[in-house]
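Predict both folds.
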Amino acid sequence: MPDQRDEQLAYCALENLEVVREFEDAGYSGKFLERPDLDELRDLVATGGADLVVVSKRDRLARGLYAGYLKNEFKRHGVELMALDSRTEDTPYGALLENTLDNFSEFERFMIADRMRRGKRSKAKQGKLVACPQPDYGFRYDEARDGYEVDELRMALIRRIFRMVGVEGMTLNAVARRLEAEGIPAPRGGGTWNRPILRKFVLSDVYLRHSYEEVTKIVTSEVAATLDHSAHYGISWYGKQRHTHSREVRVKDGKKTYPRIKKSVDAPREEWIGVPVPDPGIPQEWVLAARKIIEKNEKVSNCGRRFWELTGGILRCAACGGAMATNFIKPRQIGYYRCGKRYRLGKHACSQGKNFRAEETETTGWEFVSGILKNPQRLRRGLDEMLDRERASASQGPGEEEEVWLKKLSEHEVQEERLLDLYLEGKLEVDRYGARVSQLKQARKTIEEELGRIGDRASHIEHLEQDRDALLNHYSRIATDRLDKLEPEERNRVYKMMNLTVLAHANDNLEVKWILGGDPCRDNATLLPDSCRTRGT
């Protein structure tokens, strides 16, 4: 924010400090450490590029226990952290005060989230919609954005879909092909209609007409009193799922990205809150008939009862980098790999529309890999290089980092005991005690997650070492004829041990990358004559 930046620059000018660089993680929450500018700041500190880090507010750098973790990390590199809103002495008392501020910041975030959750549920119980970025197709938000109005143009298409499925008996695939042939845009843009979208329409209760009597069994009496006894309503359910968000660091083409990851789990049925919406005007019998038609639909498996040995992210589209999906043509008994992103999202999502014959692609990949397995010296060289890179990727030793978090855990346990003493002595009210316990539980969870992450990192390297030994001790000793007869499942396991990636190009080229460095695995090494190339990473 401009005022925070001005405050920091004023402090630097007052103290005659040279500003080496400014960092700003706009759009990223301080509750996550996975942020691009924060990563660059930590790298700058680790390489000795700064002597002091100045922030206007401690919780702008990181919230909760992460702030203390970063301060200790900076301190190990001889760099001081100066938070202008909480200047403390470098004494045990100062450390205690900082821990208190960090815990209060985490508690504040927890209380804000809890109030927002309660507020949304209260709004839904009042018969008002909790607005999402996009309304259900066929509706639009009213001016207050807490109710629906029918969008007649789009709702006419919804009614047509239900008629095609429920009355005419068309399959969802046939409906999708019809809409695409007519050039009707899909709900999220583009011209591709797919089964999940249509299935979601059929199963959504916003399109199922409910009588007043049916609605009164779902909503509160206060909401029912505002409804028209002679009208019909759809039902929008709030709270069907619980969502959690996190950040991940991913590397693509040598560049870091920080996608926000959303995970959803279904909530118990009794926690759902029904909100009445205007009558969609679709005959109830159409909706029920459409649901009956698709209820026996099973999720189609396109694997054709074969094991696809290049699945699991091994074979990827060279155009977009996405994992290749599978397709099995039953009448011809032929399997193909195709770009999964293009198949799911449409032609606009990826330029490569080529299908790759599964048997030929898998044979080509295995010929390359088996050639490596038959050369133990080449295999060991590549595996050792991979392990060296993994060990060097950690900015500090796992034991040192684990010690920091174990110390935090010890301090946390002392706080829990002190809190319980205050409550038992009658010096703390029940409400304040309960809120504080909830906050401490959240803080403990953060500590345990970090300790688990450290353990996972060490375990990952240990598993890599085990995979290396397994490859060297087992596959390099297998006779040549036996190696060529490994089952697809076993080949897939070998590929994952080798961190193998195969990029499929539109011109039929297959570009193979694995853990070996660029020197032993040279560019343009041929897999198939004049058609494939390989290179190491």
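Second protein follows, with its predicted structure tokens after the sequence.
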Amino acid sequence: MSARESLAITSLLESLSDSDSIVSGGSCFAQYIGEELSARHFNYLRSELSGERTESFGLGNIYTIAQLKQWLEFSLGHRVWGGGCIYGSDDQWFDLLLPHRLSLHSEAEVSQHRLAIKDEILSHLRQSSVFIFTVGLTETWKNQQGDIYPTCPGTLVGKFNPAEHVFHNCTFAEVHADLHDVERLLLQINANIKLVFTVSPVPLTATASDNHVLLATTYSKSVIRAAVGQYCDSSQQASYFPSYELISHPTKTDWRFEKNLRSISDSGVRYVMGHAFGESTKLEESQTCVEKAQTSEHRQDAICEEELLDSYARLQESTANISNIVLAGDCHLEKLASGFKAVGVDVAGGIVMHGSAFTDYKFKLCPEKIFIPQDSEESKALWFDIHDKLVALNGDCHILTNIGFHTHRTINRICNHLECYVLNEDNVADFFEEFCKSHVYILRELTHYGKVWMIEDPDFHAFLGNKNISQMVRDKNFHVYCDHMRKIAHQLGIEYLNPCDAALNNLFKDAYKVSEFIAPEGFLGKPKYYEYCANVVNESIGNNIALTARAA
């Protein structure tokens, strides 16, 4: 047998020729395949219904084989979607089958858009000679009629109904049977089409199962890989390309393996045994080659940690504040709460967790409390207190939040994930659909407790002189990220506020220097900035407190 590192992997080119017309679809990883096919000048059939997304059918991410099967059945006239797949009222209607789409003006428009997608599916499949599909997940949500949703209703659009919406984790037998059904349906549309399947290497970031997300990922990918492998071995139409294996298997730089990529290294053994016996499992104690987080990010988290502890100390002193303005977010919101206090406006809440805790998913969704912070006991106590206040106010309140921003982490994380420097809005939208559903869920649930105002992060990096690479990347993509947040706010019926621009204009008018309102690290503002910011927000929500900060 050849040495492991020299094993030949079947090329995708072995399934393609210059004369092929190609369509693709699947989970988020499928877009990379579409983009590469287009860039390499293959005859790639791209959807005209998807904007800048690189896909063939206008369906967005198709995570499961069951989802693909149902759209093929619909396209052939074998399926009628249930009424529970459309959500909205008045002139805002959403398709739960296509949660990435913006709202339409009527149920009829939603149905018409589905028919346009059906026509494109049939047209592109009939023109194509190769269909490349990337399978992503086994976890899915469906209604009582059996209609498969791409995402859980209530995360991006719609409202979750536990009596109607059911979580289902597909079994090997189900995935295997669905693969054969998909082939049968495709051959009804185009008897000569060739199929190439691959498994997405992108892990789950959250799971609706009772397992840890690591275990849920391994289960999901194992079931898919086994089912696809057995199906491809028996099919005359299908072949397999190993995207999953190329990413998930060890390489020469993997600290868990010795150089032969078979023997487990001492560091790898210590890491596993640390988990096994409840001892320290920090990667830095085991890992011999780790990419360290940037120093500035650690400083920002340390600053937020101080804010969190200060806020927790205040909570221990008094819980009597029942203001109808309630803040919940990261340390920007804590600073804003202090700004409100300085200008004489009574507010409740502030920081729940620091921004990196939100971006690192250190929370667990909970129907009774919306979510439960897992970062620290202080965070949990702060959020429970804020939630109790929201319940007591019974909808008669303004909720200010920046959950979903945390731009000192999120923007660079998207760029690192996509391995690109400049983002477009579709990049951000795809990342949110794949990794930020929990944040959108929290925002949606907050709307049930009062009027929600989304507070945009300040763009302080624009004023910095000597920027590091991380700051330059954030600065370059800040506005496209905020544009997507603004769309999310619109979809959820949330008011969107950018108090930074107005506050800065007022500060400059009053002859303040940059050093007087931006902290040296360029992450947070100084107290004077948040006082001006509080007045801008306060005027926007209609409390009409005088601009006492400017008078001072």
